[in-house]
Amino acid sequence: MTASDYQHLARDLVDPDVWDFIEGGAESERTLAANVAAFDRVRLRPRVLTDVSTVDTTVSLFGADFATPIGVAPTAYHRLVDAEGEVATAQGAGAAGALFVVSVFASRTVEDIAKASTGGLWLHLYWLSRRDVLADLIRRAADAGYQALLLTVDAPRIGRRWRDMRNGFAIPGDVTAVNVDEAVMAVTHRGGTGRSAIAEHAAQSFDQTVTWADLAWLRSQTSLPIVLKGILTAEDAALAVEHGVDGIVVSNHGGRQLDGAVAALDALPEVVDAVAGAMPVLFDGGVRRGTDALVALALGARMVLLGRPPLWALAAGGADGVAGLLQTATGELAHAMALTGRPRLADLDRTVLSYRVGGER
Ligand SMILES: Cc1cc2nc3c(=O)[nH]c(=O)nc-3n(C[C@H](O)[C@H](O)[C@H](O)COP(=O)(O)O)c2cc1C
Ligand SMILES: O=C(O)C(=O)c1ccccc1
């Protein structure tokens, strides 16, 4: 089944306030819409007679091999939609040979998730004020076999998500961020009419003072690769290279942070050009099909991540749903590679694309 099939099934299964939390974006949700619309503008230039009897979707990243360049983006609290939560997501991603990036606000322990996983795992972090909590979690993740750290840099504060504010949304009490010290989570505000508990919690627990210079502290804590998520400009891509990070994710957080931010796909070419091969560039935002993945890969992404679709699949089908989603998307990608006459990921370049992506610049 496709992402859209799982979305339709999930809608009837998930609590309406949780549904709004998953689906929603910031303010007018313009950037959320733009992420998906950007793919609608693209058309492909197929080449023919190239021997596509074997199509290869395998990709390696930081020394690990993946069956597919389509992975799972970090999203908080998977137990909101499935009793097994991230353990089921890890089983599904592993079955598909896909990367799973585990949110710092996961609702299962990093150790339990690692035990359930047969694939690659990275740990995502928000920069909490409590550096001792971060340091401890980084150590646990390394011990449990996580292969990289992904620091999200587009959320010093949480975007103004009116659905959550109007719903007075708070994570239900039986779902908790089990990997984060209770002292950090204790500041969680209950939300209430007109307020989002998630935004209030972040306002109290995230460190808004961090700058590029602070990355040296993170580097000192681990020998794992460090990937920055939430880069949208050539300027910041150049700074990322300068500061010696190991990879970046071009992302606008699925339209959940700065409304009006450029569509993720439109930002991808300038970032890829600025990085100029110095490190892998990943991509997320609006990918709903394998054919969308092909477009981002053609623009220079090494891997693409899905945010909302794995939550839909998890809600509708648990681990099997997540595996099914990733396998279907990978199948679509392989088909599109065959039908564009590019049977290897290395064959995918901008000549695949007919329309210019990247806005007016
Ligand atoms: C319910 C939900 C929770 C999320 N939680 C996180 C998070 O904890 N950390 C993070 O960096 N991004 C988070 N994201 C953003 C995703 O990692 C990703 O950037 C975005 O969903 C990609 O867009 P897509 O949903 O169109 O695929 C979340 C997104 C959703 C929908
Ligand atoms: O990152 C997000 O988009 C998000 O929804 C979230 C969830 C929990 C805590 C902080 C942010």
UniProtKB/TrEMBL annotation:
Residues 1-358 form the FMN hydroxy acid dehydrogenase domain. Gene3D superfamilies: Aldolase class I. Keywords: Flavoprotein, FMN, Oxidoreductase. The keyword Transit peptide does not apply. SUPFAM superfamilies: FMN-linked oxidoreductases. The active site is at 253 (proton acceptor). FMN binds at residues 74-76, 103, 152, 229, 251, 284-288, 307-308. Pfam families: FMN_dh (PF01070). Its cofactor is FMN. Glyoxylate binds at residues 126, 161, 253, 256. The keyword Oxidoreductase applies. Transmembrane segments: none annotated. GO terms for molecular function: FMN binding; oxidoreductase activity, acting on CH-OH group of donors. Belongs to the FMN-dependent alpha-hydroxy acid dehydrogenase family. This is Alpha-hydroxy-acid oxidizing enzyme.
